Amino acid sequence: MLVPHQFKFLKMWTLHEDYKNVVASSWNQTFVGCPMFVLSLKLKYLKNKLKAWNKEVFGNVHELVSQAESHLNHIQSQLDTLGHTDTLLEQQKTA
């Protein structure tokens, strides 16, 4: 049995200039029904919009983090092997 993925709100979204527009435009959609049903539909609609916007703006965040960690591990391995150089220390800082 497949379990649906949890929706996770990412704080970094709030720092993006388009975040409030995405939320406002999603929340202003009109749905008909009792208030709790309308709230449920608005939340589902907003979730789908945020997921699509996240992929469009930020890409696959988990993959980017994984790549950054791998790159940092490689630099740290070079530091262990070759010793401290200005170039490697700068690469480590930016990674």
Question: Which percent band covers the strand fraction?
Answer: under 5%
Number of strands: 0
Which ranges are low-confidence, i.e. pLDDT below 50, for 5 or more consecutive residues? none
From N to C, what is the helix and strand string?
HHHH
Structural shape: elongated
Largest sheet: none
Domains counted in the coordinates: how many?
2
CA-atom Rg in angstroms? 21 Å
Instruction: Please report the number of helical segments.
Output: 4
Integer average pLDDT? 88
- The rounded distance between the terminal residues' Cα atoms is 39 Å
Structural class: mainly alpha
Q: How helix-rich are the residues, as a percent range? A: 55-70%
Secondary structure: elements and pairs:
Elements: H1 19-27, H2 35-58, H3 61-82, H4 86-94
Note down, in words, how this protein is organized.
With 95 residues, this protein is mainly α. It has 2 domains: 41 residues; 36 residues. It contains 4 helices and no strands. The longest helix is centred in the middle third of the chain and has 24 residues. The relative contact order is 0.09. The model has no long low-confidence stretch (mean pLDDT 88).
